[in-house]
Amino acid sequence: MSTATHHDAEIVLRLYELRREPTMRKARDFMTQDFWPRTADDVINLSNAWRTEENAYFRQITTWCEMCATLPLSGAVNSDLFADWNGEILFLYAKFKPLLPELREKLNPGFLGNTERFVERNRVAQERVEKMLPRIAKMAETQQTRYPSK
Asked: What is the pTM (predicted TM-score) of this model?
């Protein structure tokens, strides 16, 4: 295990600050609280709903997760520190994980690929995702997505 530096901490704090931007907050709320896809088609419909606020939120959050995941993958930030602070990215990955094979076949072969590679390479992230999966499945049963399939 490598030791995080002050530079790593600065990056993590900056990423956290970015989460507080008003549009990012709305996008995060939509993706974590309002959008509960039951099928890959639910995600594909949202992905194809160009010029909607929800589509913009979907793209903003998924690309932000992918961008963030590249930092530990490339060695730009300590992997363990990154795994420790980013529960929301791991939550979103776990939320989409059951749909990934079909989404990659029908939508984008690289969908959340950097995020998945990060999780696969970091034991702490793997453990957190595995613990989240049953909880997210239970939550999904009781949630009604506020973005219906078309």
From this structure: 0.92
